[in-house]
Amino acid sequence: MDFSHISVLYYETLDALNIIPDGIYVDCTCGGAGHSRGLLERLGEKGRLIAIDQDPEAIEVIKERIGSDPRVTVVHDNFSNLKVILTSLGIDRVDGIMADLGVSSHQLDTAERGFSYNSDAPLDMRMSKEGLSAYDVVNSYSERELMIILRDYGEEKFAGRIAKSIVSHRQNKPIETTFELAEIVKNAIPAATRRTGGHPAKRSFQAVRIEVNAELRKLQETLDDMFYSLSHGGRLAIITFHSLEDRIVKKAFQGYCKGCECPPGTPVCICGKTPEGKLPFKKKTASPEELEKNMRSRSATLRSIEKIG
Fold it and tell me: What average pLDDT does range 251-278 have in this prediction?
């Protein structure tokens, strides 16, 4: 299978993991195995990699590219089940975990997956190819539910207008394709606004995709499992692609690094809380050289934390 994907912040992510040769590492979103192959190059014979992905097409590629390596265990699942996955493998702690939260180039460029507003295809957007689809969201959610999704997940200024237009159009016939949805969104946005800020449907498609895959909820729920699955000195590295994800990761990392919570002026600490983590760096973004080679890296942000508690 042709599964094309350029790994963003490649060396920055591998360096952030501070890989030890005989360590155990987890790639929560293995995709085309780009980061994983680099990770394996830094592992020794006794090292181990758990390669996870929820996309069945990605799993085929992972097995083909790195599955024959005896150090690799391929798992078809969502990373939100990380704790269960590690327990089933008899693993208590790992030395590093990474997650690239972006939609893969393969998913975006494969028209029939229904992720892109640039190709006409049935509305889908399911990373796992199972469960709730974009068609279901667009055609069954109430106007208020659609407005909230577009506002909160897409940070769409005209969420109310777009939601109203979607509901109006589907009264005549279901909204079935990406082009249909993109056209409805475009026409609901004022002409002056459409001429600036890229494709007018970009934020709405992001919002529907996040809802379909429960991306923010799963990330929020799983960050603790990721961090507390690390050994002492282990690193967690996460690549985000929009402010909503980055905000969740940043807030969680700040919480792990927080120490004493006693009221200001307390002469002696009585809460006993000490930092559980430390930040190797604040954040990293793509270099000018990477941006020139891969424009999809322009919105990528890497954050990392080391477990010290």
Answer: 90
Burial class (CB in 10 A: 0-12, 13-18, 19+), 19: buried
pLDDT value at position 226? 98
DSSP state string for 55-69: -HHHHHHHHHHTTTS
Burial code (b: 16+ CB inside 10 Å, e: under 16) for 202-225 equals: ebbbbbbbbbbbebbebbbebbeb
- What CATH number belongs to 112-213? 1.10.150.170
Q: Which CATH class is domain 10-106+215-307?
A: alpha beta
Q: Retrieve residue 286's tokens.
A: 């793509």
Per-residue pLDDT at 111 = 77
User: Cβ distance 278 to 252 under 8 Å?
Assistant: no
The closest of 116, 140, 163 to 296, measured between CA atoms, is 116
Residue 231 identity = S
Do 112-213 and 10-106+215-307 have the same topology in CATH?
no
Which pLDDT score, from 0 to 100, does residue 295 have?
86
Query: Can you tell me the distance from the alpha carbon of 147 to that of 1, in angstroms, rounded to the nearest whole number?
Result: 38
Whether 306 shows a pLDDT value over 80: the answer reads: yes
Give domain limits for the chain. Answer: 10-106+215-307, 112-213
| pLDDT tens, residue by residue, 108-154 | 767 788 888 998 999 999 999 999 999 999 999 999 999 999 999 99
For residue 293, give the H/E element and its range: helix 288-293
135: tokens are 């068609």
Instruction: Give the three-state DSSP class for 20.
Output: coil
Look-up: residue for tokens 């506002």? 151
- DSSP calls for 163-227: HHHHHHHHTTS---BHHHHHHHHHHHS-HHHHTSSS-TTHHHHHHHHHHHHTHHHHHHHHHHHHH
Lowest mean pLDDT, pick from 3-12, 24-33, 132-141, 279-288: 3-12
